[in-house]
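Teaching assistant here, posting this on the class forum so everyone can see the example we discussed in section. The complex has two components, and the goal was to see what a joint structure prediction looks like when all of them are supplied at once.
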Amino acid sequence: MTEKLTMAAALNRALRDAMRADDTVVMFGEDVGPLGGVFRITDGLTAEFGDQRCFDTPLAESGILGMAIGMAMNGMRPVVEMQFDAFAYPAFEQVVSHAAKMRNRTRGKLTVPIVIRIPYAGGIGGVEHHCDSSEAYYAHTPGLHVVAPSDPADAYGLLRHAIASDDPVVFLEPKKLYFARAEADLTAPVPPIGTAVIRRPGTDATLIAYGPAVPVALEAAEAAAQEGRSLQVVDVRSIVPFDDDTVCDAVRSTGRAVVVAEAAGFGSVSAEVVARVTERCFHWLHAPIRRVTGFDIPYPPPKLEHFHLPSVDRVLDAVDDLQWEDA
Amino acid sequence: MTRDAALLLPSTEPVTLIDPDGHPVPVGQDMPDPQALLHAYAALIAARRLNDQAGALVRQGRLAVYPSSHGQEACQVACVQVLDDGDWLFPTYRDTAAIVARGVDPVQALTLLRGDWHNGYDPAATRVAPQATPLATHLLHAVGVAHAARLRGEPTVVMATCGDGATSEGDFHEALNFAAVFRTPVVFFVQNNHYAISVPLDRQTAAPSLAHKGVGYGIPGERVDGNDVAALLSVLGAAVDRARSGDGPQLIEAHTYRVQAHTNADDPGRYRSADEVTPWLAKDPIMRLETFLRGRGLLDDDTIAAYVEQASLVAERMRTGLAGEPETDYRDLFAHVYAEPTPQLLDQQALVADEVSRD
């Protein structure tokens, strides 16, 4: 049964359904109680489940993460909200030294099945410290899963997978996609964490994107089609574990690729994708893989962010650079 | 819980029940019963022996490093003796003696310092969290464990230890604050041994005492003589009882001293004088309890000999269990990163397997 809903509503539904299905799932963070979160993702949860299942904490991100880890060590499945990407940094040590390593340190005797929800990335006119693309920090840490949905149906399904996972999951929610409506069938299963999907078939070149860059890639593919060029779009979805098979099969099928990501390019997930695909697909490639990423600058002020964000035109220009004259 | 600041403040001096010469101190608090003191005495002998044996194993190259609790053994044994089976202990790297006093096999407890894995015992089965080497981060985990237990209506109390240096960390503050706001049954037990490696207490804090920090969170603080196991049993026992009965978290600061180096790799001559250390040797926790118990007719040479014999069994277990090279398996490196290894980890494990097969 499909319905038209926003990603915010889909995420709220996922939390509600997970909490109904499993008493050990608890939700906490800053302003997630009666207010329902600054983006209203937890709207109504305290009313339905009570303030022992969905509750506000003191304003301290390391405290939130650390308490979640302890609760997970003792039989719970906490979901925590970091209010904004850049406000999650006080919790960094708890994420990388404890959530990520507890299973390993104890050879599986203790596990940390927590979900760290982070509204992330830009494109919403946010002031400084509200728009970081912080995925590389987490993706670089063994022991964490890192996922980013790009539409409501996937947001629902991925969040259900994340809550069910026995490993810590960094769940990156693209803020600029929160309130875009799309048709979705929330009862339909979505592929598990660790799986990329082809969002649009194409034969000339492959666009590889995740999170907020996926709609940009799809729009670019639509525009290219008007000009007679067939672009395939791969949605990575799961940054860690990375689905080498799906991504590399896609690139081999076209022989050309552009990676699109909002984060700064240097030392980034997009760089990792290029390296992995090149290592595996070199003999299928007709041109070096190009990247369209954010610049290597602190996230810009609202009136300047349009210069920074990957745009359809920038993606199409990169596609034009894929050495077609040699074909 | 009270918000009356006066009721949250610690006593003006650390609580002492037996003075360094072994004499009872007339205060309002009850002396623990003889059985509890004898149990503590036996545990002190075992803890001292464990510290000595571990130091010897470092010198023999069997352990990479050992942060000794020599001189702090009263804290080590008391914080465990006041717990029930269902309670949790959240120890630091200097609390190996407490972990063993809790019943963990000493060889498993020393896995971290031997280096064959990070944590060698089963934290879920023993209710002893992995030893924390980062400072104060584990205090928040203690709050989480206690909060989960409380949500389920279980009577669990969590004993979370740290040192004086750790009270400067942000996570110490966040842990006490969260515990107080959620009223979680955690006893924060600060072993103030006056040094964070080389940095003395007066560079950590300008507070009247570390126990005074509790008032800022709405947590009662108390100070106790950290070399007086009777006072520790009394103060920590009362704190555990209050936490278990729903009074929320408690902060206990034990005044003790790190008479040895931070670890074998440290050189305390660079930052403190022998003159500073010597007075503390006279405050040793074992001698004062022994004098007290002998004076009461509760302890004789035969009993002491029996306790020493028990302790020697622990040392023997350490020597034999830590003799020779530990067995390691490279597959452990990849098996416990995630619930299921990723395809990439399986590839990396295959690479090592290939290298091993060619050796």
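For the discussion questions: The mean pLDDT of chain B is 96. Chain B has two domains: 5-328, 329-359. Think about how each of these relates to the inputs above.
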